[in-house]
Design goal:
Elements: H1 22-38, H2 43-48, H3 53-65, E1 69-71, E2 78-80, H4 83-123, E3 128-130, H5 134-147, E4 151-156, H6 160-170, E5 183-189, H7 196-207, E6 211-215, E7 221-225, E8 229-233, E9 245-247, H8 250-266, E10 268-269, H9 270-275, H10 294-303, H11 309-316, H12 320-334, H13 339-348
Parallel strand pairs: 4-5, 5-6
Antiparallel strand pairs: 1-2, 3-9, 4-7, 6-10, 7-8, 8-9
Organism: Ornithinimicrobium kibberense
Biased composition (Pro residues): 1-12
Protein name: LuxR C-terminal-related transcriptional regulator
Length: 352
Amino acid sequence: MTASPDRPPVGAPTPSRHSRGETYEEFLSRVYMAAVRLGVPSRSALRQSGLSDADVDDAVAELVERGMLSSSEDPDRWFVVPPREALTRRMDQVERRVALTRATASEVESLWRRAMGDVGQARGPAQVDGLAGTVEIAHRIAELHRSATTRVWWAVDASVAATGLFADLAAGSTRLSVREEVQVRLVLDSSLLGDPYALAFADRARELGHEVRVANGVPFSVLMTDDKDVLVDLSRYAEDGDGSFGAHRVTWVQALSQLLVAIWDLATPYGTVLTAGQVGEGPPVVPGRLPLGDKDARVLALLATGASDKIIARQLGVSVRTVERRVRYLMEHLGAATRFQAGVQAVRRGRV
């Protein structure tokens, strides 16, 4: 309901409260503003503003139900609830309804598509849904996690929406919870190794038995659930998430699932990054192999993810210059042309 100072024209047809459409909301706004102007509205005063008895009965009953007017001992006289209190309460009610609608939209859509079968796929009005803003993207990511029944595959870059969700989780949110039987595969871009909230999310995922890997150069965030719904999150490139979308078009799901498989195959297990070179393990004793200290093994594991020197230095608690020196040493002794190649060679040869 939006407030409008205009009076309803005399004799204008009044929409029924059962219609609940936009016209009815405008009608209520006009009646409410007339009541506010009157201070203590009465039936006779509202009649003078152009309302019939039927209009008064209809509008007042709805406004009392919404907590914007209250009854008095006189059945033809009412009190206006202080607008700041009444409108704040009304906004809270509307926001709760919107939040509930968002939370159930994905599940309801899934139920509808299952009921419609092939017809639903052909006639569905929202095979591709544009997502406006990081808040809506985050809502959709959370909805897909909650509604998944078999599988969640998620490759995450430095998405504004995703990193915001990770921060919420650190504050105690459960928005990314999934059913116990759902298979989860998570790939973090190496740029997220410097984000403590992203690492906390990855650690929690591993504790729950989910598969977690780290990849270098994830082009954009992609989420797929149950092999039928995908979300492309481009909020890394634009804070308003311009171009981001959700889809359940079969060909798009198939194409993006292949991208997820390729990213997964090229990624390094997150456990390797965490445990390589931990104190007490020591390097494997194999003749002819490059002897590795604890930190060198960790450096190689991080190199395999494409982590920068700055991120490696932060993870190891050493200076960037120290990392640069050790990387040059490791590349030279492994005969690697690039730093990434050094890390991959070490992982494949079992050196970390």
